[in-house]
Model the fold of this input.
Amino acid sequence: MSKILLIYTGGTIGMVQNKETGALESCDFDSLVKHIPEMEQCSAEIDTFSFESPIDSSDMNPEIWGKIVKVIADHYDSYDGFVILHGTDTMAFTASALCFMLEGLNKPVILTGSQLPIHSIRTDAKENMITAIEIAAAKDIDGHPMVPEVCIYFHEELMRGCRSTKISASNLAAFASNNYPLLARSGTDITYYPEYIRPFNPDSRLIPHYKMDPSIIILSLFPGFGREIVDGVLKNDAVKGVIFRTFGSGNAPRNGWLEESLSEAVSNGKVIVNISQCATGFVQMEKYQTGRGLLDAGVISGLDSTVEAALTKLMYLLGEGLSQSEICRKMNLSLAGEITL
Done:
C-alpha cells in the first residue's frame, strides 16, 4: 500500500458554523477526520500532519508556503504522496508556488478543499478529499506514481497546479485549467490522461526552495488609466517586478507615455511580465502594433500563463537572487509546465 501524508492547513473544509453568529469558524483537525470514516477504506496508509493553528485561505503567504515545503521535504522519503487540505480562495496561488519551490519533485502533491464545510449535509469535502488521496496513492504498472507533480483536485477534475485558477465562489466546480488539458477526471473510475502528465524521472531528486520575494505588484489596464498612477507604481523602489495584465493578446494603448514609463522601469532593473486579461489564449506582442510597443520597451511575454503562475514564478526567481536578464530568460522557459512553448 502507498503511504500518504495528509497535511491540513485550514480552509472551509475544516470549518464549523458558530451557532450564535452563524459565521464559519475553524475546528480542530481531529474533529475533521472523525467526520470521514470512509478514509479507512482508502487503498493507502494515511498519516496526518496539522499546522498548529488553521490558516484561513486569505491569510496564506510566502512564509507559510515555505513551511509547507519544509513539511514535504522533511517527510519526502517516508511517503509516496502528499495531500494538502487548503482554503479555496488562494489554493491556485499555493499550488503554483509549490510547482516552483519543489524543484525535482517526483511524487504527487495534491491540493484540495471544499466549497462547503465537512459538517454540511451537502458537503463536497468528502469526495474531494478521498479522491485526492486515491490519486496521490495511485501507481502505474511499473510502480511509479501516476501523477508525479503538484496538482489541484476539485469536483471530479485533476489539473496541473500551475495551470489552475479559481473561477467561482459558489459553484462546486470552483477551479479551471483554461490553457491546459485536465490530467485526470473522476467518475465511476478515475481516468488519467498520461500524455498531459509530467513523466516520472527516476534520476530526479527533490531540491526544496524556501525563499520567495513578494516585491511584486499586479497592474491591470483599463480604459482611462492615468500616467500618475502607473508612474507611482513603476517608480516605487519597493517594486522589483510587475505582472502587467493587458488587453487581448498583449495589447496596450498607444498613448505616447506608457512605453516611455515602462522602458524607464526596465532600465532601472524592474522585470515586467505581460499576461492577458482574457481567461484563455496567448500573449503575442508582435501580432499588433499596440503590443509591439511593449516589446520594444523591454516588457517580456508571459505567454499563456495564469496570473497565479506568473506571480509566483516571478517571486521564486526574484527569491533566487538572479540577475534581471536571467529572470527574463527563465520567465520564458517552462520550469514546471506552467507555459506552452
